[in-house]
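Every protein is a chain of amino acids, and every chain bends into a shape of its own. The protein below has been through that process, and both of its lines are reproduced in full.
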Amino acid sequence: MGCISGPSWNYYVMLGNNIYSILLWPLLLYAIAVVILLVAILSLSYLLGQHHHDRATDKPYEGGIEQTGSARLRFSAQFYLVAMLFVIFDVEAVFIILWALGFYELGWPGYIGVAIFIGQLVVVLIYEWGIGALDIGLDGKKLLKKYKELQKPM
């Protein structure tokens, strides 16, 4: 496959012994239209938008509630770990959905492949559960034990 560019707004692609011409001016026209619309929308938003400076405008959140303390809170690494696990399993769900779309074309080899893939996901999930990567917050058993201790008559 070879490419030849000519002096005009055409792009020539050579497949085998045939040369095909691809017009590039529609792409350029589309890019110009996008830039014009972008400038128009931003300009109209600036011109027609509200320009007010209330007391709460410069605060981080205009919820009507006075700010107390700092917005910089420290989170446990567990929260970030769970977020990463969610993203990982979410991406894997996309792979399974794509497999479902091509189910008839893939046949048995595709079915066996996705079964192995799901099996690996289950093994990883059991491992993460076992090491406590999914434990966030208070332990329910410890909390119940402490509650029972407090309920005992003295």
Observations:
- The first strand starts at residue 2 and ends at 5.
